[in-house]
Amino acid sequence: MREFVFTVEYEKGADEVMDLFIENPDLHSKTMAVHATNESMWRLDRITGPTEALEEFDAVVERVTLCNEVIGMCGAPVVEWNYEMLSSTSNGRIVYSCREEGEGVQSIPYVAAKHIGDGLMMQAERRGKQYQWRLLIDDDDTVGEIYEEVNDGLSEGLSLSVQRISEPECWLEEGFDSDVLPPEQQAALEAAVEFGYYESPRRNTVKEISEKLGIPNSTLQYRLTRAEAWLAREFVTDTLGTEVEHRVDPDELEVSA
Known about the structure:
Oligomer: single chain
Structural class: alpha+beta
Distance between the termini: 22 Å
Strand content: 25-35%
Number of helices: 7
Number of domains: 2
Order of helices and strands: EHEEHEEHEEHEHHH
């Protein structure tokens, strides 16, 4: 089996739900389960973040009329969409959703199911302007087919990049439950890794990173300190899953004739 990891990136204004994640960097969504057939897709998502951002999320998903990142990846009209809030707390939601697929490219799970068939396994995670997908695939030709169909189906303001085609990694790691860590502390650690704070020499200081994120220096420092203390107590040697990897050239994704 091979692990195919790719990311759909959104420009501001391209999708109403994704705008919430762009505007609220502490907002985070991760799939608990996602399944699809050639006719429908259903999934469970855990969304964590500040109370105010989650309340905005509730309002948006109630009025949305186009498929969005809660349920898919495109801007096509929803054929039939049912969702239910299974759990709601001050800093988290668990959302069940089910939808039927219409004509054309409707959702990434739908595309994956069409090309992979029975045995499809997926993971997905969303933060900021990025939505990252991980698929288990046993045929390299399928990678190119999925890439081409998803890329061709992207609406304006969306772009696709490939991070990894390799032996399975995240599926085999026991890891640790990062949901125990408050979302703002997770975001602080991920930003610190992304901007090279832990590199030697450092690429950015806490002050420089806080300016990039638009939050007070003291706030970011506090969140990093608390997160690092938690990591030390848990004897964790790995990072929070932040992937700093090269992007795969699309030309390397060959599709058999």
